[in-house]
Amino acid sequence: MSPAFGRYIANINIVAPKPTTFKIDLINSQIFYVYYLGKGEYMFKISGKKYYAESLGDLERASDAVTALLELNYAPTEVKEETAPADKGADLGPELAAANTPEAPAEEEVPEEEVNV
Known about the structure:
Layout: E1 9-16, E2 20-26, E3 31-38, E4 41-46, E5 49-52, H1 56-71, H2 94-100
Antiparallel strand pairs: 1-2, 2-3, 3-4, 4-5
């Protein structure tokens, strides 16, 4: 992994002591795991596939798999807007749901001016 991957990581948690397992949270809410197997050996579990760090080919495939995860659902959590659900009062019944929705302000009618030709 290159040092540039650091800006795409939101959080790192230790989830198990043996083997030492790290859960990596990416900025787009995708996750993958890194396992320390001992004696400087690591294994990456990304989208259900295992990649071993001692193999250069596996490291490149792991890097590509992380890149693919970053391409999924790209919407950083800081930028997301909170929106109210559309069916907020659907389980209240039609009368109470209608009373719960704000009414749009009434528009003033502007009389059209007559144009003399």
